[in-house]
Amino acid sequence: MIEIQTLQEEHWTEVSQIFKDGIATKNATFEINVPNWTAWNEEHFQHSRFVAVQNNVVVGWVAISPVSKRDVYKGVAEISVYVSLQAQGKGVANALMEKVIQASEKNKIWTLYASIFPENEVSMYLHKKHEFRFIGKRERIAQQEGVWRDTFLFERRSEKVGN
User: Fold this and answer.
1) What is the pTM of this model?
2) In whole angstroms, what is the distance from residue 136 CA to residue 115 CA?
3) By three-state DSSP, how is residue 64 classified?
4) Structural domain boundaries of the chain?
5) Is 3-112 CATH 3.40.50.300?
6) CB atoms within 10 A of CB 83
7) Tens digits of residue pLDDT in 83-119
8) How distant is the alpha carbon of residue 152 from its chain centre?
9) Strand 49-54's sheet: what is its strand order?
């Protein structure tokens, strides 16, 4: 059984390992190093951050971060969702996504935004399943180990907030 808990500093060791494994896939993020807790914590909202725990082990995490410091964008956030390699395909990402959507709306977030590598078909499927829509492609947006990469942009507009 998967239990969803609020992500706390004491989860950071397991969360950072899952993040590190995502970096290693080369299809989850452009990041090359996992930040320390302080840096990560400052970049993400204090609300709408969760871990999935199974058998007392963190098997996934989700968090949102502001897309801008400008007040007009206070209800727009970028979402990050990661699942451990061993727990993929077992409903962890779905549970995390459901929880973060509810929490984000409770905290007046009207748009969730995701930037996904085209090769990450599982992530695109997950986001579409949770009512994210494709809004565009950023071609050759950045290099990863000297190779230009594209990203697809997805967004989910709340039907409860910001209407």
Assistant:
1) 0.94
2) 10
3) strand
4) 3-112
5) no
6) 27
7) 999 998 899 999 999 999 999 999 999 999 999 999 9
8) 14
9) 3-6, 49-54, 57-66, 76-83, 111-116, 147-157, 133-144
